[in-house]
Amino acid sequence: MILTRARPMALAVLSLILAGNLEAQTGASRGTVDPTAGYTAEQTRFFHQLFDLGNWQVTTDEDYARYTLLRTAEFFPEALLRRSGPITRLPEAPRSEVGGVVAETPALGKLTLDSFLARSETDGFIVVHHGRIVYERYPRMRRSDTHLLWSISKTFAGLLVAQLAAERRVAVQSPIEQYVPELASTAWQGTRVIDILDMASGMDALENDEANTWERPELAVFQYESSLGLLKWTPAAARSTREIVASIKRRRPSGEAFEYMSVDTFVLAWLVESVTRKPYAAVLSERIWSRMGAEADGLIVTSPRTGATAAHGGISATLRDIARYGLLFTRSRPLGAADVVPAGYLDTILRGGRPQLVERAGPGSKAIATDGVEAAHHNIYQWDAVWPDGDFFKAGFRGQGLYVSPSRDLVIAYVSSDGEFQKRYARVLAHSGLF
Fold it and tell me: pLDDT digits over 100-125, tens only?
């Protein structure tokens, strides 16, 4: 999912009308919402009655958005990503100066990080340096809550394919139909795995504001999410998710440009299932989640009708576990997880990209590969941005983010119910001189 998804005013008005109608008809009221204290039974009933597949993703009602992001399992079937083994310790070594770092955003001007978190819709923010928590805030959630990660989920698919490549079970220069025979004799035929990894498949499934993607049920990406149960049902979504993805047409040759497409991630998950002959959630559990020292089980949205997994954006996790995942790419990764990131994969992320893909990207996709000021050198393996200094980043819809700086042994992660300027703070923090 793209970060800058449109939020039509009509839906905002609809949310307010529905809220008013619900309070009048049922007596349910949101009252004063404080997620750090948990939700009341009345608030739970209120948000469930407000929920609709046509508005939950694009609502401008942050209380409503936050409830669905923190309690996704109440609305969608999910598979478990099981933790195992010792929990990776994250000793607390608070540094108050981190909260005093200043960044500038178009919406709020210059603010310290502490002030930004108080005024924005950020739910949680964590900074881990040398494996220690130096800054951690939960202004609008509880530390134990799981939060929907949206597109941070995509990087797990990239890592799983990298693992299979390291085992010589996948050659990323090979065409996708070599591993997913169902895509032979379709427009996907001949598309190299590496081009799908780098979101340069060239297929006609763009998601951007310019195309009003989320108001057009005829588009492939709308039908894809509808088939997973994440958007309102359309007759086209009566087909399985695999059938919808296989039917997508080509819009340009593969390997030409970075074009943000969630269906590319689904195809990678399809490849993982085809090669391992196991469900995607089981593979992710076995190869990553159970080996990174997670403190809690993760969750991933799964279609109740076909079992297809929302690999592109369906993972929920605690904020500390998102940070633990980021640590896999630093020298502070736990000893037992040393081979979760294959030898050479980090070097591939840092130096194996194709800058021309970002240079040729359209406006919507190119905006993803920037911190708002500095453009990325390249994107790669489902990571949105790799900068010349070797830091890399992945964004998620409504303001989720994971920033990794291997040279600084630094991980910054955050979750939000609205916003995109948290990424700017992560980049400024990394360059603040504190680390």
Answer: 999 998 888 999 999 999 999 999 99
Ranges in the chain, pLDDT < 50: 1-10, 12
Distance (Å, rounded) from C-alpha 96 to C-alpha 36?
A: 22
Q: Which residues are CB-contacts of 351 (< 8 A; sequence separation ≥ 6)?
A: none
pLDDT value for 419? 86
Question: 73 in the Ramachandran plot: left (φ > 0), alpha (ψ -120 to 50) or beta?
Answer: alpha
Quote the CA–CA distance of 427 and 281 in Å, as a whole number.
Answer: 31
Helix (H, G, I), strand (E, B) or coil at 388: coil
SS3 420: coil
- The span from the CA of 324 to the CA of 339, in Å, is 15
Distance CA 432, CA 403 (A): 14
Beta bridge partners of 405: 410
Q: CA 181 to CA 167: how far, in whole Å? A: 20
Q: Which of 378, 377, 372 is nearest to 401 (CA)?
A: 372
Sign of CA dihedral 159, 161, 165, 169: positive
Report helix, strand or coil for 205. Answer: coil
Largest CA distance in the chain: 62
Q: Could you report how far apart the first and last alpha carbons of the chain are, in Å?
A: 31
Beta-sheet strands, E only, within 77-232: 78-81, 102-105, 109-112, 122-129, 132-137, 147-148
Q: pLDDT digits over 286-338, tens only?
A: 999 999 999 999 999 999 888 999 999 999 999 999 999 999 999 999 888 88
> Which residue type sits at 434?
L
Pairing relationship of beta strands 298-301 and 78-81 according to DSSP bridges: antiparallel
